[in-house]
Amino acid sequence: IHAPKELLALMSATNPTVRRADGVYRFEMTHPIPSYLLALAVGDLEFRALGERSGVYAEPAMVQKAAWELADTEKMIVAAETLYGPYRWERYDLLVLPPSFPYGGMENPRLTFATPTILAGDRSLVSLVAHELAHSWSGTLVTNATWNDFWLNEGFTNYFESRIMEAVYGRDYAEMQAQLSKRDLEEFVQEVGATNRETWLVGDLAGRDPDDAPGAIVYDKGYFFLRHLEETVGRERWDRFLGDYFSAHAFQSMTTAGFVQELKQKLLAADPAAAARAQEWIYGPGLPAGIADPKSPAFEKVDLELARLAKGTAPKDLVTADWVTQQWQHFLRNLPRTPDSAPDNAPDKAPDSARLAALDVDFHFTDSGNAEILSDWFRLSIAAEYRAAYPAIERFLLSVGRRKFIGPLYAALARTPDGLVLARAIYAKARPGYHPVAQESLDELLLPKS
User: Fold this and answer.
1) How many Å apart are CA 15 and CA 6, to the nearest integer?
2) 3-class SS of residue 155
3) What is the pLDDT of residues 390-417, one digit of tens each?
4) From 69, 132, 230, 372, active-site residue
5) 110-116-119 Cα angle (round to 5)
6) 3-state SS, residue 138
7) Helices in 334-368 by DSSP H: which ranges?
8) Known active-site residue 440
9) In the annotation, is 161 catalytic?
């Protein structure tokens, strides 16, 4: 690669850590990789080591912040290897991309591409690193053969991510993530219908963009299926099976049918009933009976404060000092749904703008630097027409390109005629800074049909 001399070139391969004076870079990847993981980046970048085999690249103004935020990366690698065998790619580095990057992360071998929205300043959003690292086994090492098998990448990776986070940060942290994921999954199934073909694990994407695969299914239902298998056979047997699976199929592709055969032959041969239940999970709709019900003691603390809030306790008197991001998400997603003065039979609706204003005075949600918290807060603000948050919503949409956040916010605005006018006005200014992948989905939502 020939790059301008003031820039650094990187690939999903062996990488330099400093610029070359002549701007010429040569790369090598000795392992077979899926074509979708061939990646190139060129920019004004600096490198900081995170450990003996890990580091981060970012723009000079951001690299120190990124290195601090991602300091536990080496611990995650060790935890992952302890679970499911050696890391096969020699190094695990991260590249923090500009805000226009439309995804949370991309698991390019040896060089994860990551959104800057994970740099929350308190290391509370580094589960994304655990997720992309886990792909070094599930997805990058053993790859879905077709996009209908996409859950073999993402469901496995969500499960593996949870196990890494449990090993590094404790069971309670992992259960918070699982509880939030289950709520997202239940809401999706309720929205599309429990018998909808879209709720099968194995996809039906012929003639469709693979990005159309419903994330709640391939990620979250996939996670809960593997958790179901763990709880069915026991963690020790399950871990041994999964480690052997990654080793036996390293640097190969896998189909859903192939995995089911492995499951029946090597894990569930003596339990036909469990094998039949596995078939229902993969080739059936909705959420099977017996899905895990994660419970986090950290969320129980939040629930106590929510109950106090509902009974009239002022926001400033709630006990929230040690809450992490996931607890704030649980708080915002479970706020009392009607004003205290509403009759018992009042229809379910978002908290009103007066309640949001009171919360904002004490907790400063509108001024948060945490994208996960802002996303939940802004959706509540739009539903309640809490106008004080609208300038911040516009700033957020103009400065963040991650589809997970901007898509739902534009959709929430577009639900009312006035909101649609505002959404289109913001989008007209923001669109040039968005990635083409984000532009395509938002054009369909917001631009007038010809």
Assistant:
1) 17
2) helix
3) 999 999 999 999 999 999 999 999 999 9
4) 132
5) 100
6) strand
7) 353-363
8) no
9) no
